[in-house]
Amino acid sequence: MRRLAPVLLVLLLAACSPRPSLQDQLTERLTALSRTAELGTVEYTVRKAIRARDEGEWFKVGNRRILFSCTAHIKAGINLSRIPLDQIVVDEGSRSVSLVLPHATVQSINLPPEEIRLEYEDVTGFRLHFSDQERQALLKQGERDIVRDIPQLGILTEAEENALEFFRPMLVQMGFENIQIRFE
After folding, report:
1. Please, are residues 76 and 85 in contact by the beta-carbon 8 Å criterion?
2. What does the pLDDT read at residue 8?
3. Backbone dihedral region of 154: left (phi > 0), alpha (psi from -120 to 50 degrees) or beta?
């Protein structure tokens, strides 16, 4: 009986201890998520044709043309470490939450060398072939063009929509009924 009394006392105290508030639970969960740094929510594969034409001038006899094809893998998502924890608003009575997430950003762009192909090269007259340095400069320009075209691809919008699809079920599981999420 003497051994049972301390165990019963511990169980009684544990049962009477207050449960963490929804605000504390959410802050704890978001803090744990922020340690992962980034949440990649979408990946696009983009094929790009890169071409160059170097027409001869009066002192250059002949023309040079080149065409590459390449594949770029673009990942986008949100930076979880930038979630402003101080802007979380929880109303436990109405089971509502207001959460601010950072806007989606491009997390990586990868142009694997094995997916870059020289499709066509034509050199006429007394012209020299494109040098390795010129080829590298063309590929860098192609990568800059891909980055420039990202807003038209809709990848950032889709990344934010997918982030919403990640957070909403988590918040519902925690017991929230009215959920408001916005991006800043």
Report:
1. no
2. 43
3. left
Tally of CB atoms within 10 A around 136 = 11
Determine phi and psi for 158, rounding to 5 degrees: -65, -35
Task: Kindly report the pTM of this predicted structure.
Answer: 0.72
Cα–Cα distance measured from residue 87 to residue 35, given in angstroms and rounded to the nearest whole number? 18
Q: Are 155 and 77 in contact (CB under 8 A)?
A: no
Of 25 and 128, the structure prediction assigns the larger pLDDT to 128
Domain housing 113: 20-183
Dihedral, CA atoms, 89, 92, 96, 98, nearest 10 degrees?
10
Bridge partners (DSSP) listed for residue 27:
none
**Host H or E run for residue 138:** helix 132-153
CA torsion through residues 126, 131, 137, 142, sign: positive
Q: Does 149 fall in a domain?
A: yes
Query: Are the CB atoms for 80 and 134 separated by under 8 Å?
Result: no
State the total domains in the chain. Answer: 1
**Alpha-carbon span 115 to 103, nearest angstrom:** 30
Whether residue 4 is contained in a domain is answered as no
Domain contains 134: yes
CA 12 to chain centre: 47
Which residue would you say has higher pLDDT here, 35 or 50?
A: 50
